[in-house]
Amino acid sequence: MDNPVEFFEGNSWTCGVVGLGYVGLPLALTAVSKGHAAIGFDTSEDRVRRLGAASSPIDDVSDADLASALEAGLSVTGDADDLKLADAIFICVPSPLGRNRQPDMSYIQSAATTVARIARPGQLISLESTTYPGTTDDILVTALADVGLEVDRDVYVAFSPERVSPGDELKTAEIPKVVGGVSALSTAVAAAAYSKLVPNVHAVSDAKTAEMAKLLENTYRAVNIGLINEMAQLAHEIDIDIWEVIEAAATKPFGFQAFFPGPGVGGHCIPLDPQFLAWRAKEANFTTRFIDTAEQVNEGMPAWTARRVGSMLNKRGLPIFGTRILGVGISYKPDIADDRESASARVLVELRNQGAEIEVYDPLVPPDRIRRHGFEPSTSFDGYSAALILTDHQGIDYNAISAAVPVVFDSRNAYRRRGIEVDNVEVL
Ligand SMILES: NC(=O)c1ccc[n+]([C@@H]2O[C@H](COP(=O)([O-])OP(=O)(O)OC[C@H]3O[C@@H](n4cnc5c(N)ncnc54)[C@H](O)[C@@H]3O)[C@@H](O)[C@H]2O)c1
User: Fold this and answer.
1) Same structural domain for residues 312 and 358?
2) Which run of H or of E encompasses 111?
3) How many helices (DSSP H) and strands (DSSP E) are in the chain?
4) Which one is catalytic: 179, 231, 269, 278?
């Protein structure tokens, strides 16, 4: 390849994706929609089989879109050697936290080893998994060097975070991409490649800047959610309506961004991502006070919400023990079926531990997933002494719930936001 930047600025190259989940699958589909061939590799045999049969495992990709992509140039494989045909390889594997909330780098390490084994000269390799600043150099460049591949001489290496938010309207192809290479040439090559996938590329000096940019974005959210959750607790203590306070503050045309309280943070990004930064900070003997405080407040919200429910029942002469409660919404955010790290489930577990009899209504989360939390799914609103709105999906009939149960605890301000005025709803 004479000029790698010109090559990737060209119209047709082959895109390889490692890890076909929430991030990798939409990226592969984006590549195909932009006229590139795409090879998706996953270590899960089941996932490869399912995808090959055009059955999408994720909310944001429909079976029909997957089927069209398979016809238009997407191939799905469990054989990493197929990635040799790719010109650019994007690594989108999980990066969870381990037992003591330290980064679990095993998936990235394993993907880096696999890619290094099959890598060929001229390839661009870009890591997209969320991770601590320094990972691309520490793990990916090292794995490539171990097999004799040198950056810029043989391969180009970069980091570019995925910023998609499941269920939101903005999709992978519409969100600007931050791109940082491990060398100036790698940055230029990666920026050229991404510019053929998304309309807006923001190149930064190096990979670790791009890695930290992603963590800053989600730390900003975690800290602001922590702040507003603490304000909600304070407002309750001094008998002020936090929702009205936020609405008033948000009329300021500058300097204030509204965040909203809730029963806690969930999902696999906001509660986890700041911990990558906190972990890296500890290595540098630096204490991340905002991250730690926000985590403390956010982690305390499910128990605080459960206590609020307890006092709501108490005011009506009801104990928690033995009271039949309907939990409404168990996914971690509205309008998606993903229940990973859901704060809603934690509120319900707190109440169940105190003897409440809980069932769950969530029209999006499949019954077997609700049962995995230890709750029976329900399709009816009848026969409960209280309902808790924990995740406010759009399609729920909130009027029917408040008509069927004596009292509702609304942790999302779902009723007032929809202009529903009923007098048996207590808001968080
Ligand atoms: N889900 C999101 O909304 C989101 C948003 C931004 C960033 N991220 C980050 O993107 C990364 C991927 O997240 P996800 O939600 O797509 O994960 P996911 O669990 O949905 O998908 C990961 C896929 O990778 C496969 N896999 C695991 N190890 C592999 C390996 N060594 N080689 C090939 N395939 C392998 C798994 O089988 C799975 O199909 C994570 O770092 C995550 O933090 C996720």
Assistant:
1) yes
2) helix 106-118
3) 16, 14
4) 269
Shared-domain flag, residues 174 and 250 = no
Does ligand 1 lie within 6 Å of residue 95's CB atom? yes
- Ligand 1 mutation target, pool 162, 172, 221, 333, most atoms within 8 A of CB: 162
Whole-number Å distance between alpha carbons of 358 and 352:
7
pLDDT of 70 strictly over 90: yes
CB 195 within 8 A of CB 9: yes
343: containing domain: 222-427
Alpha-carbon Rg for the chain, nearest whole angstrom, is 24
**CATH code for the domain of 81:** 3.40.50.720
Domain match, 228 and 274 both: yes
| Pairing verdict, β 407-410 and 425-427 | parallel
In this structure, what token pair is assigned to residue 380?
A: 């009816």
Query: First and final CA of the chain: distance in angstroms?
Result: 60
- The model's pTM is 0.94
Which of the listed residues 207, 236, 257 is the one where a domain comes to its end?
Answer: 207
Decide if 269 is catalytic.
Answer: yes
Instruction: Give the model's confidence band at 1: pLDDT under 50 very low, under 70 low, under 90 confident, else very high.
Output: low
Q: Structurally, how many domains does the chain consist of? A: 2
Spatial separation of the C-alpha atoms in residues 375 and 361, rounded to whole Å: 10
Same-domain check for residues 250 and 161:
no
Q: pLDDT by residue (tens digit) across 321-332?
A: 999 999 999 999
Contact criterion met (CB below 8 Å) for 266 and 332:
yes
pLDDT for position 250: 98
Give the pLDDT confidence of 406-428 residue by residue, as tens digits. 999 999 999 999 999 999 999 99
Q: Among the three residues 175, 207, 239, which one is the final residue of a domain in this structure?
A: 207
